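User: Assemble these into one structure.

Assistant: Restating your components, then the assembled model:
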Amino acid sequence: MTDESMHDHMINRFDTISPLDYRYYGDDPGFFEALQPYVSETANIRYMLRVELALVRALVHFGICPSSVEFQVEAACKEITAEEVYKEEHKVHHNIRALVNCIRERIPIEHRSYVHLFATSNDIMDTAYSLRYKELTRNVLLPRLIEFERELIFLARKYKDQLQIGRTHGQHAVPTTFGYALSWYVSRLGSRIQAIDSAHKNLRGKLSGAVGAFNALSLQDNADPTIFESEVLNRLGLVASPTSVSTQLVEPEYLTDLVYAVTSCFSVLANFADDIRNLVRTEIGELTDCYEEHQVGSSTMPHKINPKNFENVKSLWKEFMPRMMTMFMDQISEHQRDLTNSASLRFQPELFTGFCYAVSRLSGGMKKISINESRMQENFEMTKDKIVAEPLYIILALQKFPDAYDVTMRLSRQSQREGTNLLDLAEADPILGPILSEISPEHKALLKDSSLYIGDAPGRVDATCDKWELEIDMISNRLKAEQKDAVLREQLDHALAV
Amino acid sequence: MTDESMHDHMINRFDTISPLDYRYYGDDPGFFEALQPYVSETANIRYMLRVELALVRALVHFGICPSSVEFQVEAACKEITAEEVYKEEHKVHHNIRALVNCIRERIPIEHRSYVHLFATSNDIMDTAYSLRYKELTRNVLLPRLIEFERELIFLARKYKDQLQIGRTHGQHAVPTTFGYALSWYVSRLGSRIQAIDSAHKNLRGKLSGAVGAFNALSLQDNADPTIFESEVLNRLGLVASPTSVSTQLVEPEYLTDLVYAVTSCFSVLANFADDIRNLVRTEIGELTDCYEEHQVGSSTMPHKINPKNFENVKSLWKEFMPRMMTMFMDQISEHQRDLTNSASLRFQPELFTGFCYAVSRLSGGMKKISINESRMQENFEMTKDKIVAEPLYIILALQKFPDAYDVTMRLSRQSQREGTNLLDLAEADPILGPILSEISPEHKALLKDSSLYIGDAPGRVDATCDKWELEIDMISNRLKAEQKDAVLREQLDHALAV
Amino acid sequence: MTDESMHDHMINRFDTISPLDYRYYGDDPGFFEALQPYVSETANIRYMLRVELALVRALVHFGICPSSVEFQVEAACKEITAEEVYKEEHKVHHNIRALVNCIRERIPIEHRSYVHLFATSNDIMDTAYSLRYKELTRNVLLPRLIEFERELIFLARKYKDQLQIGRTHGQHAVPTTFGYALSWYVSRLGSRIQAIDSAHKNLRGKLSGAVGAFNALSLQDNADPTIFESEVLNRLGLVASPTSVSTQLVEPEYLTDLVYAVTSCFSVLANFADDIRNLVRTEIGELTDCYEEHQVGSSTMPHKINPKNFENVKSLWKEFMPRMMTMFMDQISEHQRDLTNSASLRFQPELFTGFCYAVSRLSGGMKKISINESRMQENFEMTKDKIVAEPLYIILALQKFPDAYDVTMRLSRQSQREGTNLLDLAEADPILGPILSEISPEHKALLKDSSLYIGDAPGRVDATCDKWELEIDMISNRLKAEQKDAVLREQLDHALAV
Amino acid sequence: MTDESMHDHMINRFDTISPLDYRYYGDDPGFFEALQPYVSETANIRYMLRVELALVRALVHFGICPSSVEFQVEAACKEITAEEVYKEEHKVHHNIRALVNCIRERIPIEHRSYVHLFATSNDIMDTAYSLRYKELTRNVLLPRLIEFERELIFLARKYKDQLQIGRTHGQHAVPTTFGYALSWYVSRLGSRIQAIDSAHKNLRGKLSGAVGAFNALSLQDNADPTIFESEVLNRLGLVASPTSVSTQLVEPEYLTDLVYAVTSCFSVLANFADDIRNLVRTEIGELTDCYEEHQVGSSTMPHKINPKNFENVKSLWKEFMPRMMTMFMDQISEHQRDLTNSASLRFQPELFTGFCYAVSRLSGGMKKISINESRMQENFEMTKDKIVAEPLYIILALQKFPDAYDVTMRLSRQSQREGTNLLDLAEADPILGPILSEISPEHKALLKDSSLYIGDAPGRVDATCDKWELEIDMISNRLKAEQKDAVLREQLDHALAV
């Protein structure tokens, strides 16, 4: 490319505005390479060219245009750059006409009328968006989420027996295990992976023209226009709405469902990040962030080490979650379309990028976290005598003692007031004492040692990890098979073209 | 009940704050009766009592408590009023303990310890919420939506051939039919009905105790605690999370999915309302609101008749759509629970009520709308000569004329500038004229009369209405069968209890 | 009133949907009495009647109607109930026409044409809304906020010297005092009180008719119609937009500003509630919730005491904060008005109610909080040796030691790794040792005892409390004077009328 | 700079994700040049360097460090690039420590300890943010808004007498003038300019250290640390919070207020854009978009010309309005700070950029709009006979006819049913006829010609335009004076440094 002013196409990354562009995506070569084929404007144009090419292939398929056009358009599409399309757009003030002109000028004049034939701009754009988000989700987003899910499963199993005090309202409740606390996220993340998987498979394309009634395609004799639409979309691995109904737009709900699935999964990540942040609090200290040699925690407090990966994830959630409202507003478009979604739709790839980045931050962050088992034990011991209240009350109730709850609460308050041991108080009580002497050895042991009171936590960990490992294996295998199919289809199309 | 001050339990409806309470729900007896069993605080308490009762039944089932307790608790639950529970709550400062106390004081002292045994408050609350929203959706919300969908299907079919100009950007584009414009909503609403149906079936309960690890239930010898949980939930027509994983909370994503499905459907309703509002604009006038004899349109302009039903629906969408953000924030709860969702969860029934009300307003509103076919024709005729541009360009392209688009645009601008007829210009053109003389009679006729250029609109109407009629019939039949089952289960439980 | 069905006007409070109605406002007699005159539908109607009356008074003032009408309308307004207006609305399907009819039927036929003369419905409604929110803010919301601010000032001063470890990222940073932590909220709340005060004073009314051009009023000969508008509004303590510009609506920004001021203040309350919740965590324990004798903390864990007031405030914030989006959407209204704000505006009083309730919960909650000074000391001592890192590095830097930060970080990490004392390490260091032996006695003492390292915390407390005490005294006095004025104006109007 | 991989610092603009970066800002050289100094990451780093420099200058001022350091740091700051800072950050994993290191390595080793002395990272960051947004608002955002306001004032005056039918509910109401409709926006935009102006002046900085208690600064003997803070901030044209209270953060409300002012102004722009879009609807046609020669309106419909500037503005509003929620969430930060605002704060410049862009689009869009006076007249004439209803009813009422409204409504409906003329019906009425024969000639004329019924529209235009012209002149002059002052201060500082 030429060496003109920076406004041509090269820009200093730090002159960009979006932190995605200068920092989270633009500053991380691996992340950039993984995402650029889907989320950049270059990608957007490449996807639209793929749709234009699929349209021409369908024209050839139905004998509407000579088969040589397919090869010519394919060659043209390979050459076209985003820069060139933008230059043309500055002339014609229309982004798709610009794209079309860039193709047209590369092919013989007698074939130019076949380019974009029957299509309205939004046939190309909506179809390209669907394809782009579908492949982004299949090729990057879901594999990363699945990887993180596997990491969580590993940790949950590893710590399935690790005693941890359960906390409700920030107060010590009754014990659980650290592995069980993690398996809560294994399950929630698993359900979101399924939701994202379902939604991305359900994205749709269209080729029904300016008002969705197949006006233009109906000019083609004797053809059911939805068959032509199917031919175009199937080449891209897409389908239309069930009955090919549309306006100028694909029904917005398909994309809305995906945006929702991603956003609701983002909340699960944010919740996880919050839990980690709380566990690394100085006073709790059950987890510790391990830092690299030269890493600085604070510019003025040399002793600080901060859970910044987890703060970052929560912060990104705060940035991206409200954008769901934009999508809800974009579900509304007057009549056959009002185009007040033109700018806002362009911002959608940011959500997917921010989300993928958050997954990577969490995954990377967890690798640097060390579990402080002794602090878990110490924290448990702070209240181990008090939390006996629940099993004590239930054991009494199982012994048919009628006011088990109230009596236990009274003794519990007394023990807190006096700093005495609750179980001792109960055993010394003239009514409760005799009852307690009758209970089973297992119950006795548990009341003596409330660390035994972890219920079925380890069993739930096993069940949960087994189930979700199976589920994500199935999804993962299917995604890989689909990726392979997509590559084959592309090769086949190309072979036929040549 | 006693006749004390109004703060006891009776309140002047106009002293309430929520427009739902004093106006939309409280002021409409039919709507009130339909919704009160699900959305009121009375309903909330009734549902929690049902869960407490199911828990006792399970205790009996497993032989943990004597079978007479079931009958005693059932009788108690029938008597308990919301007022009474609130009075008790004022004493103990805990809503579920208050509920439990109200049951306990009605049964023999020796059986009291079985009430609420093994349960934490939120086992009751989350399970009751799920049950409540499930039955509300199944019994009221979905049937109303389905009825509205049927009305739309009827209208779409009726007007499937009714010519209407398609509008993009508010500008005349190319023709469609009014029925096809409606079938866009048939399809979108249909997909939302499916989404709401899926989400409501997927609501879950729990009985896993204070931190979700089945700590209390594990005190019961030799029992897999998840079997006990299943027994309780199945009696209510519910299940637990796939592997019975939880914290103090059911995974929030199940409810979030339903709230999303409803909210995204609300956007479809709002879009529909906007389209209607635009079509009744004085200058467009394709639809007219028919008013009753004494109805006032404006307090100062006696000639005004306003599309207030449709304005109301849009306005309710503006009120309720942002509340999805509250749900996203409520997905986040620290550790085993932080209870910062205590108040916000209480507001959730408002969304369902507002949504049901909007469906009724739309449905009622559409019944008063008359379709002004002559205005549709007049509006079409405003631009019938100009919109020929699209078929003209495509027909030329199909004749292999290379610059069909650009030439047509040039002529189109010329015709607008000069006020001349585009087709005349094209036919008079030395290059285009000969080409146009070669085209098929069908194409000729269509260029002469652009009202023929409606594509496959009627065909799409048929396909769409047929498909969705079938789909909603299936859903509707299944819902009815489930309602019947629920009644039978309740009767059976009762019979066993007696 | 008659004793017909409950749908007449009396409703069981627990049959309402909104938790405001059945629980937060409806269940708290004191709160109900304070708020009902502003936030109920009864209040809404009363305020609209006040505007209608002010309009008639202005007609009398300008000699357009006989002075007796004023008295007749005043008497009518006193009698009219919300129930009656709603009954009439069911007939005429227009809320303001219903209101007007209720007045008209109470006055002599020959005077009826003066009622509502020149006004469009929204002249009445928008003016009534402004008046209602103005008086609600002045009479209830600001006084309660100011009272809470005074409580915070008291606490901040009381604990201005109470050592507390400062926490950033949840990690121990350097010390502060508990009083200073509170004065952060004194200042933030103070600034929000000013913002709410400014916004509520700036609410506006209008009397410019159906499209805001004073069309109707201009039928009155020789009069500048804005003078008439001023006369009406001034009687209510309001003014119009600066140049009396309007459409059917008052410029929505005046109300938006108030909604924003309240919402941004709500965030400050939520932040405060979060801080308290964290400080009562079991592991931190610097604050403790004191509970009443019979209060239950958990329905299954008798030992639990939870910070439920503070959880409730955070939860209410989650419910109400997103509603700001509704207000932003309601800023948009097509042309002279589109009425898609009709329902959403009716929900606005809920924000004010929820906010007032949150202030009361916080204020009440703080009264039950006890400060655990020994836990503050213990927590500080956890890291007192480590946090020396910051003063150590700065003292070294002040001694012109060039790499003070890096060296201190290195030693700090070493001390953490080895479990040794940072200051000992520094003093033992061959380079740092000699430097440290040269520092001032004050600096030496501070490095030995990092509890001295609280900076200017007490001084900032004094300055902050002094300033804001003065500011809120001024606001408070002005509000009281305005309340007195309002009463006097009302009495005067009445005297003139009689 | 070196010529390494693209991940160094140069990036293909079309490989960015944000539409701001590749399209709205990055693709528009003029816009880029105007905004880059404020909204880019380069700008962010430049502003932070300015704060570091101001800090060193204050150290010199108070004799804490030698005056030569100021010159050394100033020289260093000029050289430092964003790229370099990011490279260093990759090593130390801390953005501000990286910045500090870049300064330090450029100055003599014996002076390095003065760099960043007493400061915590966020002293630099929050102060730099405030300064950046203040200067962006003062230098770019407000001047552009003011220019647009002037354009609106010009148009409002030009069309102050241009008859236009007023529309409420999309229905013809009573007449107004096009100039008056515009002056509604003159006033609303004027009030928002004032709000933005107030908020930007009120942004604050801080230099109070890690927990806001001036811990570090208090190590400096005998100094009131707030004086030192003032010295630093005043050099930047900023002040601290009233009593210098802070945590690690400046009180977030100052920025929240500005974000709100901008967002609420954005809604006014969106409302304006909606009104324009409606007026260019084919059926209304009162405004027309004038297009350039080669501009394409649709890729398939050569006849289309679309209001895309106005659609774009509405779309941007949908994108940016919900982000206010992020700011509300960022008001909340635990204790002395939790850093979950680290990422979200970085996205804030996007709002300002999107807003500035929207102002430019609107301003540019309005220049291409032509006003179609004949269509305004035609549209008015559609209902000119019907809208007489309002003046007719009021004139009757002024004649003391008691049921003026109801009678007029009845006749109005009759006229609509029968297609007859309302005034004719009224004059033919045995009761109304005689009354109408008595009314003033002016009223008679107005009833005959409802185009006279425009009230005080032209007078309100004059008053509104005069007022706001004055107000914005004052603001504009003040802003220019402040810009001049800022340049002088910078020069003076530099002179002193050299």
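Residues 388-452 of chain D form one domain.
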